[in-house]
Design a protein that fits this description.
Layout lengths: L26 E12 L2 E13 L4 E5 L6 H8 L7 E6 L2 E2 L5 H11 E4 L11 H9 L8 H7 L15 H13 L5 E5 L7 H18 L2 E6 L10 E6 L2 E7 L12
Parallel strand pairs: 3-8, 3-9, 6-7, 7-8
Antiparallel strand pairs: 1-2, 1-4, 4-5, 9-10
Length: 256
């Protein structure tokens, strides 16, 4: 998979309409389906999902547990393969890619942020981020990534010396240090209280605005919907509705 040259814009973090472009979507799926088999039992986790997202969009994906949100994220992130259907990153057909091509896709184009931070305890914040910058194709400096998420003064602290919100921001810095085109976040505030979660959301919206990174945030927390360009509602493995926010709220305006 060749390196893409995705045009990057810097939309406002609040009050902006979704970015529009005549170019092809950054990410799209057609009839994307995933069936898990457990013995004789089949579980339809994702049911013929059609979706597209353009460069610079910030979408929040809502739905109850078991609605297909995480399965969808795993498929478009190249962490799993579908049972049927198609997924494309620009003009690259992910569902036809070899394992080595998917590895390059994840390494060069996708950043992941999960509910649990997965930091190396024996490394400082700076060193945790450098784990990515040392293997990335076009990285920013670890210091630049940490400063972008508001951790300029905490770079040389170990995870045990950081709060939960600070650890999650290190995880975000690690994800964005490779300058990904796509940032996939699975319940990034799920383990955090409201005040700390808002700080993490501020970091994510700042990254989206300043780097133009297309961002998908999975959550069951409906309070977060206001910060998105679009809200994607999942039910029973399908997209039930897509709602555009005419005006985006700053992360500081929400609580739960």
């Amino acid at each position: 998979m060749s390196q893409s040259n995705v045009a990057r814009s810097a939309p406002d973090t609040a009050g902006a309409a979704p970015p529009t472009t005549a170019a092809a979507p950054l990410l799209r799926t057609s009839k994307l389906t995933k069936i898990y088999r457990m013995g004789d039992v089949e579980v339809l986790a994702l049911d013929a999902v059609d979706f597209s997202a353009g460069a610079g969009e910030f979408d929040v994906i809502l739905g109850p547990s078991g609605s297909g949100k995480s399965t969808f994220l795993n498929l478009v992130g190249g962490l799993d393969t579908p049972t049927s259907g198609e997924a494309w990153f620009l003009d690259h057909r992910l569902t036809a890619a070899s394992e080595s091509a998917l590895t390059r896709y994840r390494r060069e184009h996708v950043g992941f942020v999960f509910q649990f931070y997965n930091l190396v305890p024996s490394l400082t914040a700076r060193e945790n981020v450098r784990l990515v910058t040392e293997i990335a194709h076009r990285p920013m400096r670890a210091e630049e990534a940490l400063e972008l998420v508001g951790l300029k003064e905490r770079m040389d602290h170990f995870p045990a010396q950081l709060s939960g919100g600070e650890q999650q921001r290190v995880a975000i810095a690690r994800a964005i240090a490779k300058r990904p085109d796509l940032l996939l976040c699975d319940e990034p505030t799920g383990a955090l209280d409201s005040a700390t979660g808002v700080v993490v959301l501020e970091a994510l919206t700042k990254v989206n605005a300043e780097l133009g990174t297309t961002t998908l945030v999975i959550t069951h927390n409906v309070a977060i919907r206001g910060i998105a360009h679009r809200v994607i509602n999942f039910t029973n493995g399908r997209i039930a509705s897509i709602e555009a926010n005419a005006v985006r709220l700053p992360a500081s305006a929400i609580s739960w």
